[in-house]
Structure formats: structure tokens, C-alpha cells
Amino acid sequence: MSRTFYVTTPIYYVNDVPHIGHAYTTLAADVLARYKKLKGYEVFFLTGTDEHGQKVEKAANTAGETPLELADRVVKRFQGLWEKLDIQYTDFIRTTQERHKKGVSHIFTKIMAQGDIYLGEYEDWYCTPCETFWTETQLIDGKCPDCNRPVDKLKEESYFFRMSKYQEQLLAHIEANPDFIQPKSRRNEIISFVKEGLRDLSVSRTSFNWGIPVPGNEKHVIYVWFDALTNYITALGYPDEQSAFKTFWPVDVHLIGKDILRFHAVYWPTFLMAAGLPVPKKVFAHGWWTVEGQKMSKSLQNVVEPNMLVDRYGIDAVRYFLLREVPFGLDGDFSHAALVHRINSDLANDLGNLLNRSTAMVNKYFDGVLPAPGPQTELDTAFREKTEAMVRQLDACMDELAFSKGLQAIWEVISAGNKYIDETAPWALAKDPAKREYLGTVMYTLLEAQRIVHLVLSAFMPRTSAKALGYLGWTEPCREEDLAWGRLAPGTLIVKAEALFPRIEEKEEK
Ligand code: ME8
């Protein structure tokens, strides 16, 4: 049986254009998906857009468009950016698609039929930007506790989901599955939240129209979060249980930002429990990016536009930086200076130089033909073992979504490679005909280690890796077994590499 892996990003609201925050989650999902493919998994990687709700309706009114016109326009911005960032998703779901609306109506009807959705009346405070209801006691100084913006009092007839009924089942599940909510600090927050008591949740609205109608009562539209969360199964073909749904559900990991953890770790699992469906295996909430120390916002005009970054620094530099700079799960700060520093030191200096130096030497000493390894010393075995250990370490890091730590492990091999050159001093070996076989060992070890480095790096920096592997004469598709040492055949033609990353003048960057 083939191993499968299903990873999702949030579906993004179309009332805003994409920025590095959105790019971050989607990139992380792409890296994970590519890595799992490399390891032989059958992967389903889902992203998409959240197109219903009051927020989108309001933005469309302001723009003088219908909500669907707005969505059609903004969705292209997201899809264009994903193409530009080399994001290889399997499917892109839009909540305005028929397949989605059909699935949402189905699950809503099913939960209602068994009595876990009922009609009642709502009176509470509503934060439109967050699309969230709050009780009087949750407000802070009369404002939304999440975003500190004013809230409106809403009283309306509403359908309710009997979330309270699932409180104990959810708590038991969280406690029995330490990996379900990550990172750990966030898991603790959710446990406290659930222990405070779950109230029944309003899951319909009558105050606006832009949404999926409640089956059998078209005065109501389904609450945007109930609609949005369901995308993770409708995209797989739910309610047709013989579709991709059968192969890929439950999801291996929902990647989200910490802002929307409660929806994914409390609301969504309880909806699924009510529908009799398995809950996600893991929900991982990453941290928040600020920009040069400040919150990103339109009013501060400091929103970092990923298209601009890619035009300026290149796709792979941006992909590398975002995942390397900040441990996944912690908050991070974006600055041009930090990005340029990473490009110059990690990419140009360490990674690029190692490839340049070693491919140049094979060309100089062996006319570009990879020699067979000869006798080994402790230096060569140690370097080889370090490379092999890195492959195992990286695997553990990817399971924990510790992207930065995984990259660090790869870079330790790169640094060790540069050090290995200094210690073996191939230029001295080349002068002594008696050392020619050992020179072969050094060249082989250097290039074979880099073949493995670039195979694993292909998940993070696909273009750079493809280029590097080309110089190394490796034209095979990447398969898991190729991560083993010794696959690069002696006799392979090695091309002298051009600089992978030109250095950038640091003082120019602001
Ligand atoms: O919440 N730092 O959509 P959204 C890090 N439609 N990540 C950030 C970020 C930042 N500064 N800003 C945004 C929604 N993100 C709902 C989701 S899912 C069923 C429905 C990322 O467009 C992060 O992943 O507001 C965050 O969770 C998401 O964008 C919010 O996107």
C-alpha cells in the first residue's frame, strides 16, 4: 500500500491581496509536500480562497463590484503569486465552487438531522474583521480581544451547533494525542480554553446574503467559518466517500497561523465529531511575521509584497530565508538586511562556494570526469558519516515541522564540506602523483555529499537544486533511495559551476 500525505494551508480571504504572511504558510506547505514526495509518499497539497462572508461582501461594495467579481479578480493574484513562488499544489479550492457548496450543505444537513444543529436566537458582540462572536465578558475595554477593533451588538435568529456536547470528547482527544495541536505552548492555550467551557456556536446569519444558504431555510446563510473549514474535505470530494476523501482523510497536517488556531483546534474537530468523521491528525500553528519590528498593516504602508521580493532577490532566496530565519512556530521579524545577510553568507558563501570550488577542482585535476573513490582516511569517513546522519536528522526535523533546524543540519554538512577541502588540501595532493588515488577519494566524497545535499534541498529550493544537480551530472528524478551514499557514478561528467547566488552589496539594502 502506498503511503499518503495530505497537507493544507488556510484558504485565504479575497478581501485582501497576498503578502509575505500568506506566502509563508503556503511555502511551508509546499516544502513539506515536496519533501514527502521525495520520500515516496503520494501527496495531496491543498490551498485555496475563502470567498464568502460579510467581510468580502463589504470589500466588494466598497470596490463597486459584486462579491464574485471581487473574488475572481483577487483569486488571480493568489494563483499568480503561487506560480511565481514555484508552489506545486495539487488542488486549489474556492468556496464559491459548486463542489464545495454541495459538500457544505450536505454536512450541515447531516448534523442538523441528528439534532446537533438547532434554531435559536442570538444576542452577542460581533467583530466583522475577525468574523467572530464574543460574549460581553470576553471583550477587552468593550473591543474585540483579538484585534482591538470596535464590535457590533447583533441580535438575530440563528442556527446553533451543539458544540457544548462535544467538549469532553474533544478534551479527551487532545489529551490522548499530544501531537494533535502543536506547538506545545499553543496546545496548552487550547486546553485551557476548552476547559473553561464550550458554548453552543452560532452557525448561521441573516444579516447579509453572501454565503451558502442554510438548506431548507434560505433566509439564513451558513456561518463563514463553518463554510470555510469544510473546504478541507469538500476539496477531496466529500460527501462522495469513495473519492480522494477515502485516500487522504484524515489530513496529516493543517498548517495555519496562530491567529486561527481556535477555529482549527476546537470548532473544526467538533464539527467533524458531530458528522461522525475522523479529526485531523495534526494542527500546527506557526508564528507571526512583523516587518522591521512593526505589525504589517495597510495603514502603516509596510506590507511586504512577495512579488517584489522575488523580483529583487530571486525565488529560492526568498523561499530559503522565510523558512530558515525563524523557527517554525515562533514569531519573526522581516528585514531586508537580514535577507541580504542570509543570501550572502549562507547561499553565496557557503553553498555556492562549495559547489564552485569542488566542481572547478574536478575539472582542473580530472578534466571534469568524476574519479572513483580510492583509499579512505578518517577525514573522508567522518564527512561521509556526517552527510548520512544529516539525512536522518532532516527526516526527524520535517516530521516536527522544524524547517529551520532541518536547514541548519544541511548547512552543517556544507560547512563541513568547506572545512574538508581546507583540511585535505587537494591542491597539495595534486602535486604528488603518489596521492592521485586519494585525490580521487576527496573529489568523489565532496561531490557525492553535495549530490545528497542538493537532493534534500530540492524541497526548499527547487530551481537552485536542479541547477546544482545538473552541474553534478545527476539527471535522475529524485527518489528516496537516491539519498543513499554512493549513487553518483564514477566517470560522470562534472560541469564547472557558475555562481549559484551572486553576492549583494549589503549597504544598498533598506
Ligand atoms: O483567516 N504572519 O484568512 P486570511 C504569518 N479565511 N502568517 C500570516 C500573517 C503574518 N503576519 N498574515 C497572514 C483566514 N498570515 C481565513 C482562513 S481556513 C479554513 C480560513 C497567514 O486571509 C497565516 O497562515 O486572514 C494566517 O493563519 C492566514 O494567513 C490568515 O489568512
TrEMBL record:
The record's Gene Ontology cellular component field reads: cytoplasm
* Gene Ontology biological-process entries: methionyl-tRNA aminoacylation
Q: Which InterPro entries match?
A: Anticodon_Met (IPR041872), Met-tRNA_synth (IPR014758), Met-tRNA_synth_2 (IPR023457), Methionyl/Leucyl_tRNA_Synth (IPR015413), MetRS_core (IPR033911), Rossmann-like_a/b/a_fold (IPR014729), tRNAsynth_Ia_anticodon-bd (IPR009080)
Q: According to the UniProt entry, what is the EC number of this protein?
A: 6.1.1.10
Motif annotated as 'KMSKS' region, chain positions: 295-299
Q: Which reaction does it catalyse?
A: tRNA(Met) + L-methionine + ATP = L-methionyl-tRNA(Met) + AMP + diphosphate
* Record key words, sorted: Aminoacyl-tRNA synthetase, ATP-binding, Cytoplasm, Ligase, Metal-binding, Nucleotide-binding, Protein biosynthesis, Zinc
User: Which cofactors are named for this entry?
Assistant: Zn(2+)
Tell me which Pfam families the record gives.
Anticodon_3 (PF19303), tRNA-synt_1g (PF09334)
Q: How is the cofactor bound?
A: Binds 1 zinc ion per subunit.
**Is GTP-binding tagged as a keyword?**
no
Classify the main location. cytoplasm
Q: Which residues form the Methionyl-tRNA synthetase anticodon-binding domain?
A: 371-508
Motif 'HIGH' region covers 12-22
Q: Does the keyword DNA-binding apply?
A: no
This molecule's function is given as: Is required not only for elongation of protein synthesis but also for the initiation of all mRNA translation through initiator tRNA(fMet) aminoacylation.
PANTHER family in the cross-refs: METHIONINE--TRNA LIGASE, MITOCHONDRIAL, METHIONYL-TRNA SYNTHETASE
Q: How does it assemble?
A: Monomer.
Tell me which family the UniProt entry assigns to this protein: Belongs to the class-I aminoacyl-tRNA synthetase family. MetG type 2A subfamily.
Give the protein's recorded name. Methionine--tRNA ligase
